[in-house]
Design brief:
This protein is α/β, with parallel strands linked by helices and about 250 residues long. Helices cover about 35% and strands about 25% of the residues.
Length: about 250
């Protein structure tokens, strides 16, 4: 894990977000010096992921959403069972939150704008002084349904849309996961479409009055992109066998 940790911290620039990220980025459970020949990748740290990592005979699990956020708390109940399972089965848990959201190549947002084929891409979406998303222009105007199919292959029942803007979309801003409040920045920049994960009643009227399209594609669906990219890149650049564990939540 030592080489993987060094590579990840440098590649994803952990230091840039250390002061603003409540997540404990890096190894959360296990031994940093552990040898790893196979690593599992998942969006969330949960028992389903832990059990599947064990079934895959992975020595480590990389997740976007780790176990520890902010203040410390006792390892009892569900949390104690989770940590106990990992330690009993010698599975190291490694988490990477904001560094994976904002990375210009492997990040969730970068991969989404790449899938859309956006041009003139720029950092977008200020969060505590850091731009964590991206915006850009479609080479040709598109309707919303075509963009959804391009990203997800089909219309998912969990996807929600606010159709308050132009039917012909050219400019798009993306912040994966919980970027709901940042829609105000998309409005301020006059974007045709804003893509994020979580839906919220609180922004409905703001979006309607501003005349912007918003795609709430689900927290999970918008944050598989970076995790999959990491799995592919780790296998290629570090020679570690990897497997992606798809455990959708519907949200």
């Amino acid at each position: 894990m030592t080489d993987f940790d060094r590579w990840t911290r440098e590649r994803l620039d952990f230091m840039d977000t250390d002061s603003i990220d409540a997540s404990m980025n890096g190894i959360q459970v296990g031994k940093l010096e552990a040898e790893v020949s196979k690593m599992a990748f998942a969006v969330d740290a949960c028992m389903d992921a832990f059990r599947r990592a064990k079934q895959e005979r992975a020595q480590a699990l990389f997740v976007h959403h780790g176990l520890f956020w902010g203040p410390a708390f006792p390892l009892t109940g569900i949390m104690g069972e989770r940590v106990g399972f990992l330690m009993k089965n010698d599975i190291s848990l490694y988490a990477c939150h904001l560094p994976l959201d904002k990375h210009a190549e492997l990040g969730n947002n970068a991969r989404i704008v790449s899938e859309l084929g956006l041009e003139d891409i720029e950092p977008f979406g200020d969060y505590k002084g850091r731009k964590i998303g991206f915006k850009g222009q479609l080479p040709e105007a598109s309707d919303l349904e075509s963009l959804i199919v391009r990203l997800f292959g089909a219309w998912e029942s969990r996807i929600n849309v606010l159709r308050f803007g132009s039917s012909e979309i050219r400019s798009v801003g993306v912040i994966s996961g919980g970027g709901t409040r940042e829609v105000s920045q998309a409005i301020a920049e006059g974007l045709d479409l804003y893509i994020t994960g979580d839906a919220s009643h609180n922004i409905y009227h703001e979006c309607r009055e501003a005349g912007i399209n918003v795609l709430f594609a689900g927290h999970y669906l918008t944050e598989v992109f970076g995790v999959k990219a990491m799995a592919e890149t780790v296998a290629t650049e570090l020679g570690i066998e990897t497997v992606f564990l798809d455990i959708p939540t519907g949200y």
